[in-house]
């Protein structure tokens, strides 16, 4: 098989995995329609994945197997700050009662490496490992505002500013103004930009070298995330928690 054919086959395999991930399971026909290859090609790839426990078959549908959970756990625990992030997020969730998450940037997209629902945390479609566009999230905007400007520009050039909700910022100049405000005050807001009905506040968290390690956010329903608590108390609390976290990391 020529090298170009091998690369194409690899790309098809990855596209199949993405389809199963996005849909939570799919038939051979469903996958073939999305990936735009023959059903025999899809079946061959799925059979290989099933043989190595990367997919499981239930009736006529294929779904990702627990082998991916093992790999995902390895990736998350390999991150040098994971253990400390877990403790940080849990403590804030207990203190605020809301949903709390920690987002990191990789390849220009955001990935949640840990999240926790507090006692009053409301529904949120965030899953550990799920990738999102940075501009759609308060944590993502906190990251964008603290990356080198040329890196932020490159991310926008590559990934664009797709809309997730009617509140998502999709105009580049408007986003740049928003990021400048975030730099000035030190924290970011999102008003239903990722999920309608939910507002969020986030702060950047820096690594020991002064770079951006990730974004720490608290999310809650609009009726709770208002007034002095949302505008002053919660941002100050998160800024303090981030500073303490950074100090602890510098002594490890």
UniProtKB/TrEMBL annotation:
The keyword ATP-binding is annotated on this UniProt entry: no
HTH arsR-type domain segment(s): 1-100
Segments forming domain HTH iclR-type: 7-66
Keyword annotations: DNA-binding, Transcription, Transcription regulation
Coiled coil: none
InterPro entries: GAF-like_dom_sf (IPR029016), HTH_ArsR_DNA-bd_dom (IPR001845), HTH_MetabolicPath_Reg (IPR050707), Tscrpt_reg_IclR_C (IPR014757), Tscrpt_reg_IclR_N (IPR005471), WH-like_DNA-bd_sf (IPR036388), WH_DNA-bd_sf (IPR036390)
Chain ranges of the IclR-ED domain: 67-251
Pfam families per the UniProt record, alphabetical: HTH_IclR, IclR_C
Name the UniProt record assigns to this protein: IclR family transcriptional regulator
Recorded GO MF terms: DNA binding; DNA-binding transcription factor activity
GO BP terms in the entry: negative regulation of DNA-templated transcription
Matches recorded under Gene3D superfamilies: 3.30.450.40, Winged helix-like DNA-binding domain superfamily/Winged helix DNA-binding domain (1.10.10.10)
Highest taxon listed in the record's lineage: Archaea
Entries under SUPFAM superfamilies matching the protein: GAF domain-like (SSF55781), Winged helix' DNA-binding domain (SSF46785)
